[in-house]
Amino acid sequence: MKRLRNTAIRAGFEALYLSGAHYLLRPLLAGVGAIFMLHHVRPGRDDAFQPNHHLEVEPEFLRAMLAHLRALDIDIVTMDEAYRRLQERDFARRFACFTFDDGYRDNRDYALPIMREFDAPLTIYVTSDFAEGVGRLWWVGLEHLISTASSIEAPIGGVATRLDASTPAAKQAAFDRLHDWLRGLRGERGPQREVSVLCRRHGIDEAGIVRDLCMSWNELKAFANDPLVTIGAHTVTHCNLARQREATASFELTASRARIEAVLQRPVLHFAYPYGDRLAAGPREFKLAQAAGFKTAVTTRPGMIFPESADHLTALQRVSLNGNYQDARLIPVLTSGAATAVWNGFRRIDAA
User: Fold this and answer.
1) With 195 labelled, which of 52, 58, 79, 160 sits at a CA distance of 20 to 30 A?
2) Widest distance between CA atoms in the chain
3) Cα(238)–Cα(22) distance, rounded to whole angstroms?
4) Which residue, among 268, 257, 215, has the nearest Cα to 235 in the 3D structure?
């Protein structure tokens, strides 16, 4: 199913590109700016099984996007500046923000040098447990255990289910089924708990994964001193806030901010919802982010920034730079607003 969806999205991108419709639609759909969403920036891998490939782009794609924005004379600004422009209704010039979720080390090693080439600021949303080295990147752990196994047994829907993982195609199908099951679990740490059980069974070092991939507090201290870098919050544990009790969700917001501020000794005023789609962030979470004192909070709901976004500062839409579609030809489609408009039903604001 996900492969079919990816094929359909790719076909949509290609249709907009080949027809040139995005050029005609840009004045209507590009809005006043865009907040771009990334996770990993690193060289590509050759592995046949890469279920999390959508979360990583190669350095050259990021460089191409930045060059394109500079060629369009679009301002690349901090989230503080985006907030100011929205608050003051200052839309004389279009703007773009670059945001990176989770706090991966490759953001420092690969993304930051490229951002420096263009004097372009970036915001890193840090999950505090990841920086502490005690968090769990469960979707990466799931990838690791499936990549090494020939079959997986898991209690899907309370029923012990054995999934084939003997070929790359079978591994992808197993990952998709397990991922969908895990995202649907309720409770404070449902996916993390279940994947931890599977990792122990298959000899996967979950703690080693987060230490290998994410910046530690000491690394973040040095990283945050770069004048181009803004540090935001991304909860304590990277949980699905909408599936938590209100008290737990509120704690995840306020404690993550407090921990980062205590370690880095600087204010943390911007937030990103983990997962960030309609199943993970809705009106309750938007209000909680505002109550926690964040100036802005970003979702993963697709969309550009419009003047009306000023009324929904804790429900801001983003444009995903997705590893499955990192084709430089398609960059003008992404910045035109046409692709996200098609995806979200031509809603300018999606905050319900």
Assistant:
1) 58
2) 59
3) 35
4) 257
Residues 6+ apart with CB under 8 A from 147: 47, 49, 171
Sort residue 31 into left (φ over 0), alpha (ψ -120 to 50) or beta.
left
Q: What residues contact residue 16 under an 8 Å CB cut-off, 6+ apart?
A: 22, 333, 336, 338, 339, 342
- Assess whether pLDDT exceeds 80 at residue 6: no
Nearest residue to 313 via CA among 154, 147, 82, 151: 82
Contact 221, 131 (CB under 8 A): no
Listing DSSP states for 242-277 in one string gives: GGS-HHHHHHHHHHHHHHHHHHH-S---EEE-SS-S
Neighbours of 145 (CB within 10 A): 23
For 77-80, the CB contacts below 8 A with 24+ separation are 77/121, 78/121, 78/123, 78/230, 79/35, 79/123, 79/230, 79/232, 79/269, 79/270, 79/295, 79/296, 80/230, 80/269, 80/270, 80/295
Name the architecture of domain 2-133+214-343.
Alpha-Beta Barrel (3.20)
Whose CA is closest to 284, among 258, 254, 247?
247
pLDDT tens, 217-251? Answer: 999 999 999 999 999 999 999 999 999 999 999 99
pTM summary value? 0.96
- Do residues 35 and 299 make contact, with C-beta atoms less than 8 angstroms apart? no
Structure tokens given for 5: 């969806």
C-alpha distances in Å from residue 67, one per residue of 39, 92, 120: 20, 21, 11
Residues 270 and 295: beta-carbon distance below 8 Å: yes
What is the C-alpha separation between 181 and 155, in angstroms, rounded? Answer: 10
